[in-house]
């Protein structure tokens, strides 16, 4: 007799259905969301909620983003298989892992060494070998690895960081939350054209702040 699906399987199916229901349609993005096990990226205390559509606390007072927002930002970034992508704010490494399934290479920068080290172990364990993890201030980008085809920022900046725009190729795109830390932020998509930067406002969001400098605590 066929076995009924396990609770875990049902949770994963509901997770994918929820993303489709909320409007994620790009097959490559859905495939990446299906492939990357979110339970590997959350802390042990919250593992039961790994497939709920919510942000969760991680170490260093930071958060792993809500899965819908991860999928939405990834879809809007329009990552192609040949792309080199910069992510600012590695955090848990979950968004990094999703991007790594779509791009040729992902460079990700985080200001907390602890978070970066933990993310590295998770990403290596899953065998995702096209990721470079850097510890430092993402407000400077990663100039030695620039230019990038795409940039995603997963912490909120007060203004558009011009340094990051400089590290985009012409025609390159960047998705990032903009706004102050105690007010509503808006998710923005920027496209770098020859003589101007096109801006599209997407969604109201809530992200942890983009802070300057490498974190002093680990
Ligand atoms: N993409 C992450 C989201 C983590 S929250 C995930 O999927 O889990 C945002 C992260 O940005 C935090 O870990 C925070 O420490 C980091 N961050 C904030 N300011 C930064 C900066 N200037 N440079 C690098 N990382 C930064």
Give an account of the 3D structure.
The structure is a single chain. The protein has six helices and nine strands. It is of the alpha/beta class and 218 residues long. The protein has a single domain (7-205), classed as 3-Layer(aba) Sandwich (Rossmann fold). It is globular. The mean pLDDT is 95.
Question: Features of this protein?
Answer:
alpha/beta; two-stranded antiparallel ribbon; 218 residues; seven-stranded mixed β-sheet; 9 strands; binds S-adenosyl-L-homocysteine; globular; Rossmann fold
* CATH H-level homologous superfamily name: Vaccinia Virus protein VP39
Strands of the widest sheet, in order across it, are 5-4-3-6-7-8-9
Structural class: alpha/beta
Distance between the termini: 53 Å
| Poorly predicted runs | none
Tell me what portion of residues adopts beta-strand conformation. Answer: 15-25%
Bound molecules: S-adenosyl-L-homocysteine
Number of helices: 6
How is this fold's topology laid out?
Layout: H1 7-21, H2 27-35, E1 56-57, E2 63-64, H3 67-77, E3 84-88, H4 94-100, E4 105-110, H5 113-125, E5 131-135, E6 148-153, H6 162-166, E7 168-178, E8 185-192, E9 197-205
Parallel strand pairs: 3-4, 3-6, 4-5, 6-7
Antiparallel strand pairs: 1-2, 7-8, 8-9
S-adenosyl-L-homocysteine binds near residues 89 and 155.
Summarize the structure.
By secondary structure, the chain is of the alpha/beta class.
């Amino acid at each position: 007799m066929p076995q009924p699906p396990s609770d875990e399987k049902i949770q994963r199916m509901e997770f994918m259905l929820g993303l489709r229901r909320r409007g994620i349609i790009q097959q490559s993005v859905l495939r990446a969301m299906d492939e990357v096990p979110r339970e590997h990226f959350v802390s042990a205390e919250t593992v039961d909620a790994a497939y709920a559509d919510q942000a969760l606390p991680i170490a260093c007072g930071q958060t792993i983003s809500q899965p819908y927002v991860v999928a939405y930002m990834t879809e809007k970034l329009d990552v192609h298989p040949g792309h080199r992508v910069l992510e600012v704010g590695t955090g848990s490494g979950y968004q990094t892992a999703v991007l790594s399934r779509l791009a040729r290479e992902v460079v990700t920068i985080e200001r907390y060494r602890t978070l970066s080290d933990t993310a590295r172990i998770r990403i290596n364990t899953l065998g995702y070998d096209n990721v470079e993890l850097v510890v430092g201030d993402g407000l400077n980008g990663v100039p030695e690895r620039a230019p990038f085809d795409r940039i995603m920022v997963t912490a909120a900046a007060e203004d558009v960081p011009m340094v990051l725009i400089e590290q985009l190729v012409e025609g390159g795109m960047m998705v990032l939350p903009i706004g102050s830390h105690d007010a509503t932020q808006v998710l923005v998509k920027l496209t770098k054209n020859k003589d101007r930067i096109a801006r599209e406002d997407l969604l109201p969001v809530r992200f942890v702040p983009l802070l300057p400098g490498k974190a002093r605590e680990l």
